[in-house]
Write a structure and sequence with these properties.
Layout lengths: L2 H11 L4 E7 L2 E6 H18 L6 E5 L4 H12 L3 E5 L5 H11 L3 E4 L2 H8 L7 E4 H4 L30 E6 L9 E5 H18 L11 E3 L6 H12 L4 E3 L6 H8 L3 E4 L1 H17 L2 H18 L5 H13 L1 H8 L5 E4 L6 H9 L4 E5 L9 E2 L18 E4 L4 E5 L6 E2 L3 H7 E2 L2 E10 L5 E6 L14 H11 L3 E7 L6 E7 L3 H13 L7 E7 L18 H7 L1 H7 L12
Helix pairs in contact: 1-2, 2-3, 7-8, 10-11, 11-12, 16-17
Length: 567
Amino acid sequence: MNFLETIFENLSSAPQKPILQEIRRGHLVSCTGEELLGYIQQVRYALREAGLHAGDRCALLAPNSIQWVAVDLAVMAEGGIVVPLYSRQSPSELVQMMKDSSPRFLCCANVELRDAISAVWAEVPATLLFEKIFSTVLPPFTPDLNKDSTTQTKYPAGLTDSSWVTIIYTSGTSGDSKGVVLTAGNITFMLQRTAGRLVELMQNVKKSSDDRVFHYLPFCFAGSWILLLSNLYRNNALILSTDLNKLTEELQIAQPHYFLNVPALLERIRNGIQDQLRKRGKVVHRLFARAQKAWLAQNHGKAGIVDSLGLSLTRFLIFPKIKQTISPNLRALICGSASLSEETQLFFQMIGIPVLQVYGLTETTGICTMDDVHEVSAGRVGPAIPGIDMKLGANDEILVRGPNVFPGYWNRPEATAEVIKDGWFHTGDQGEVDGNGNWKVVGRLKNLIIPTSGHNVSPEPLEQKLLSLLPEAEYAMVCGNGRKFLSAIISGNATRERVEVALQALNQELPHYKQVRKFYLTPEPFSTENGLLTTNRKIKRAAIESLYRSAIEELYRDPATQIKDRP
């Protein structure tokens, strides 16, 4: 069976089982398999009444919810192609994606979202509002599989491995987003692999029910969608966040075994933990700092007896309480979408929380590698998942081949031909692999900075290190292509003095051509709303360079902010 047939079979075979839960006003509100099937039937009926045909595109614009899941599954079950969109993205960017994909219908959560689109685009597709869809009273069910029938059906449309099921738009870090087509075969293959890895993660854990899985990342992000489908594929309940401003409170309600994260949130959690320890007084903070130093020394085989005793004491007194504040059931944190700094991964490992990294692109159905549950190598993203091949090409570019690779970009044959050559997908990521097959992503080839010295500089490692030295900053973007030296645009609450100290520490470890000499502090946050971050919280370099063009030019004229080398 393909993934959709498996999901429908799961929902039908356990109709009273809670399969999705939303956190509302501090409580879990459950949806059973039978209820979800009922919602799916309402959507399918509405789509048939509206005239959806197999192969039609249907845009889906809504925040995460049980209704979102029902619409997604219903469109695919009718043979349609889902085009998921981020509800917090700017209307102009959403319109660009819809103009590109030409959806026949727009399934929209509310009037406000629809009106925001229609305000900038007069030709908005026929819109089906959630309120109307889910208030429809269905006619009596008749088991008619005739696709021309207006009656709803309990069965998904027949899909082959090559059937297109979704068009997910790339994050557009360096330009316009492109529509990535994914097939039923791509999804089925990937869910088989993720399901196996999640089973491994929960081995030897005593539990009487499903894995407790919390989810807050937008479903329009490929990796997030894969986790959603993985839980439905495994017939495992999923707990959905409904308020990103209350993640701390929601985590205490969900008490998950694991959940998917982007690096930005894990950095924030780490900084929050350190701030709380400072507030608890000098004794606790010093004990923790010494334990952290001892743990790093132990990691490098250099810890002495005193170090080991201090670390053992902290493991007994402090680390369990920190873990408890996140979730008493926490088995691991899963992290994807961008590289996580090695310091942050080691920090969580120290307090007893493994961080399992995954690496992939939308074009590879979200995932290429997954950390081995039993052997995590900090700073790396694990080995290639079984069934796919990975190798290094020219300029150490990561190349991928396998059933997870997409068939192509929507209506962009030339762009497809540029990235798929001789059966290998050219990721555009620069990487390295160790003797155990564990991969590391160094940076994006398109992001390489070439100063006038002629050296190739990947900005991502510099940005990660700078942010680790400057926790009060939110984002940093290094620039300097074609210039004599590198500079940085920094957002957050950092002071000029703190930035200078951090850059001196950073530059002390670097060759001259990698040193960041100047900086510009901006009080304006980087966000998806202002177009400076992608939907999965990665910086949009072209947009930031455009917005701060004057400031960048000033950096290369004004010597006042230059950071001097230490003697």
